[in-house]
Amino acid sequence: MDGTRHSNVLFVVLDTVRKDHLGVYGYERETTPTLSQFAEDATVFESAIAPAPWTLPVHASLFTGRYPSQHGADQGSPYLEDETTLASILSAAGYDTACYSSNAWITPYTGLTDGFDDQDSFFEVLPGDVLSGPLASAWQAVNDNDYLRQLASKLVRVGAMAHAKLASGEGADSKTPAVIDRTKSFIDDSNSDQGWFAFVNLMDAHLPYYPPEEYRTEFAPGVDPDSVCQNSKEFNSGARDIDDEEWEAIRGLYDAEIAHMDAELGRLFAWLRETGQWEETTVIVCADHGELHGEHDLYGHEFALYDELVNVPLLVKHPELAADRRDELVELLDLHETVLDALDVDPAALNLAGGDGASGDGGENGDSLARDPTRSLLSSSYRSFDTVADSELDPGQRAVREQALANETDPVADGAGDRDRDGDADYAFIEYAQPVIETHHLEQKASEAGIELPDDHRAYSRLRAARSTDAKYVRADRIPDEGYRLDEDPAEGTPVDPAADAVVAATERALARFEEAAGGAWIDPSETDDDTAGLDDADEETRERLRELGYLE
């Protein structure tokens, strides 16, 4: 940052919200009057790219500033380990920190709440002791070690039970009002001389959609939530068809959920203004990922990296940012450095212990905890990766810099004669390891319908993508790669062969450079150690609890 320091940061994630359903991004239905008003004071980003299409790896990236392949948090290994988190840094710097959410992935079990002074997941599907303590360590041992790999399916089934409950009316009551109330109480009670950092995840727009009646009446009149498909796996497996009328009803319920969140966020914003804290608070509002409602013949946010999932809304209020709209590419993981910049906190000066690069002494692939102005939206050198030392480059920075150098020197035939590639092209990178719970659900729904999923079904594919403002290239290991000219085909309806298009070809090469910098393909989940020491710490009561929940025989 080049100037103003703020005392506080409010960081809001609107879970599963696609940007084209927000009024501030041109949606014809005014689902978000609060955000439309907020946009008058904020910068609205048109090309903000999430590093993954689902909650856990995206939040881990927000909290570490690292790509999923760097921090390792995914369904095959569903916890953030050995990382110095944003909350840990801010707590060490003297800020009061809190995390409130109704998302089951943002819990002590996954490690995403590490470092927060206070947290509540407002998630009641599984007993609280599943999410922390020795039981969590035992779960982790089962999940990680080859010796216990045959028991991992039991853990998946427990996760499936939780998701199944969420996909019914039983778990449908909105926790958002309670999350907002808890956030206000935390802010009200904060007595730090430095300030506070409040992280809030609002979950209403995630399936299933059971919006409060007043919003359902406005956006989905006459629609009974129990009469429409609320389970994406039923559609994605081929076990259930959805016609245009039902899609319209589903989208109406989705809009109603967004409108409810917007109203609750407005309640928090109004309170901050009334209490005189608005001007001293940096406010970040984004989505972690979007949602598909039949586009690309998919439902939900699994098995794909289309823009409806990864090009997400992002609005930021800070004195260094003009109330304006910006078209250039940004990555959500840059919000980690943006928060540090807004509060002028240098983690390298805090002598933190633990986590990769926690000593702050540098290392390969950007392991240092030193501030990186090229990753802060508030910095005049934002994304000027040519200024970063080689030893400090992360995989994305390295790929962008190497691609830019190649663009400047290497002409290419594009079908219309030779021309220089665009040396100013920037890229964001997205990673998606093969899902576990979603694939288990899909197989179950397919089996119930007598459908056999082919080995090359996209549910079994790992995906990586590079995206510029003009193009995207997605590499997969079981389905064909996909390239798109987003400037000509924003709906990603017609794949483009990189051999026939220079812009798509350059994007594919940028992805290859990212893959090389990130260490190649993901590690196969079966390639694990057979150490069972994690279970040794579990007492007999914990082991019995594991047996009751189906973790152990």
What is shown here, in short?
This protein has 17 helices and 16 strands. With 553 residues, the protein is an alpha/beta fold. The protein has an eight-stranded mixed β-sheet, sandwiched between helices. A four-stranded antiparallel β-sheet has the order 13-14-15-16.
Task: Considering the chains and any ligands shown, give keywords for the structure.
33% helix; alpha/beta; four-stranded antiparallel beta sheet; 553 residues
Shape by Cα distribution: globular
Helical residue percent band: 25-40%
Radius of gyration: 23 Å
Number of strands: 16
* Total helical elements: 17
Mean pLDDT: 84
Poorly predicted runs are: 124-135, 146-157, 355-366, 413-423, 524-535, 545-553
Intertermini distance: 55 Å
Class inferred from helices and paired strands = alpha/beta
Spatial arrangement of strands, main beta sheet? 4-3-5-1-6-9-2-10
**Beta strand %:** 5-15%
The biggest sheet amounts to: 8 strands, mixed
